[in-house]
What we know:
By secondary structure, the chain is mainly α. It has helices at residues 2-23, 26-43, 47-51, 55-63. Helix 1 (2-23) packs antiparallel against helix 2.
Amino acid sequence: MKKVFRFLLLLILAFAVYAGFATQVWSYSFAIISLCFLAFVGTLPSKKSSKSGGSSVIFGGDASGADGGC
């Protein structure tokens, strides 16, 4: 799904660049390009989420009843 989304972003980006060259009005094209860039960055895996993967283990330990629950 991410590959399809990235392809659509690339297609929109190409259209924005073409429209900028064709009309010589770059204000709309810059807005489209910046939104596409932000959306693309949002699809990249973050390093922070891979480092904080241990938090689920902590919650799993609490749910196991090791703290004297039922």
